[in-house]
Amino acid sequence: MKNTESFLLTAIGVMVLSCAPAVFAQDHHDEGQDRGAQSGDRARDYHFRDEDAPKLRQHYKNVERVDVSHRTALVAGAHLTGDWHRRLRPVPVAVVRELPPPPPGYVFGYLDGYCVVYDPTTLLIADVIDLANLAR
Q: Cα–Cα 20 to 30 A to 70, which of 21, 84, 112, 118?
């Protein structure tokens, strides 16, 4: 009888331990979703000001050369997709200083005539200014 009890206790222990990673993964996944949701909430609150566009246009003088008919449309609330990482350039610190501070964790970038504020972890776009269409 003692062997049967020992076997059952061992079997129950193994089952409990085998479930622990799934439970931990679910908790960890939920925390990640919470962080992503909080990041999205902060992003919805960020907006470029009207006076930011002329400042950015002064820095990006070659924006008239952007082929607007062959670029991906970028909009606030969407995510960066495709080969964005090859074409995206950081906005210089001197220009960033003149802009409203981005939400925590977000950065500024310039891509295909757009100035964007995005989360480099989730690739969520908080706001966009289309500098190429302002030039036309």
A: 118
